[in-house]
Structure formats: C-alpha cells, structure tokens
Amino acid sequence: MAARAARLSRFNLVSLTLGLAFLYLPIVIMVIYSFNDSRLVTVWGGWSLRWYRELLQDEAMLAAAWMSLKVALASATAAAVFGTLAAVALSRAGHFRGWTLFSGMLYAPLVMPEVITGLSLLLLFVALNAERGFWTVTIAHTTLTMCFVAVVVQSRLHALDRSVEEAAMDLGCGPVEAFLQATVPLIWPAIAAGWMLAFALSLDDLVIASFTTGPGSATLPIRIYSEIRLGVKPQINAVCTLIIAVVALAIVLASLASKLSRAKADSAAPM
pTM of the entire structure? Predict the structure, then answer.
C-alpha cells in the first residue's frame, strides 16, 4: 500500500507539473521574448527593452488600450448597477407575471454564443441607425456582463438575513433608504466581485466588440488581432507582458489587502 501511495503521489506530481507547464509555459516564453532584441520573435538576439520603448511610441496601440480601459470601466459600472437591480428584482419581488421570461432573457448571454449576441446587437444598432463607436461597444459589453453580476449578487441576496433591513424600516427608513443603508453594505463584496468580473470580461472581449465597434474606436483585443494576422510583432509580446504584470500586481495587492483586513478583524475581536 505504501508503494502504491508513493506511485500515486509521483503520478499526481507529474500530472500537476504537466498541467502547469501546459498552462503557463507559453506565457513564460512570451514574457521572455518580450525582452528579445531581435525583430524575429522566434530568434533570440539578446536582452533588450527595445520593444517596450517602441510600444510607448505606438500611438495606435496606446489609443486602443485607452479605448479598452474606458469601455471596460463604463460597461462594468453600468453592469454592476443594472445587474444588482435585476438580482434584487429576481430575489425580492417573488414570482411575478413574466418572472420566467425576465430571468431567461437576463441569463441568456451566459449560454448564448458571443457570435449570435454580437450579430443581434449589430442588427439592432443598424436598425436604430446608431453610429458605431464607444457607446455601442459599451452597451454591448454591458449586455454581456450584466448577467454575470446578477448571478453573483443574487446568490449573496439569497444567503442574506433580511432582519437588518427590516429593523431599519422599523426605525423609520423607507424601503429604498433601508436597502441603500442596510443591504448594500452587506452585499457590497458581491457587487465588487461582479464589477471586477465584468471589467475583466469587457477588457478581454473580441467577438462582440468586432461586431459593434466602428472607425476610430478599436479596442486593444481588436488591435492585437488585426496585427497578428500579418505576423506576430515583438510589440505584441511587450503589451501582453505589461497586461500580465498589471494583473499580477492587482492580485498581490488584493491578497495583501485581504490579509490586512483579516488581521485587523482578528485584533479587534474580543478575547
């Protein structure tokens, strides 16, 4: 049995190593080659920051990155607001007439292919004669990400004790004020988690943005995709490495903030 357990342990270790290598080895290679001095991405020419300097001079790439950031911030904020309201309606209003239709339409983007969602939104904007640009992409991303926020917030509302909100109303608060003053602080972590999920989905989206964008409003994924069709440029490695660095830094800061808040809570707890 001990030998069998040792074999299983070695098998698990090998499986874990192969899985991590499959997931992260391409990313590591890309990060290393972002510091390559050679113009050819497959030929090593020594260490250099050349492509980072050229990236800072690439106005089209910087404009696309700024457009992606603006769209992600706007769509994530709108999705957080509308998704929270939709979650409240589904969890607090009971089974009203049209509840099934409303919930089905809300959760449809979760299972619907993005090609269909993007094409339907494109047809809508064409029918409305709307000029495609920043706002059309923002509306499309809000439509896509609102359902994710609703799922996260609704699960938190189902587990929430309504006694605090009922106590606030007993003390004279109206329903809206009681919700804002008592319920929102309790579900705020869920709203923040939904906002971050919506932000990441919007920043990463390519399919829906390609249907709803217009001239001068290309996002970063569209810009990268349009350039790699002609061959991978070293600047692409540089911009991807910067994105990975920002995400890693955000994860580290979030972990440190969580540990600090947990430490403060433990120190403030009565002995």
Answer: 0.81
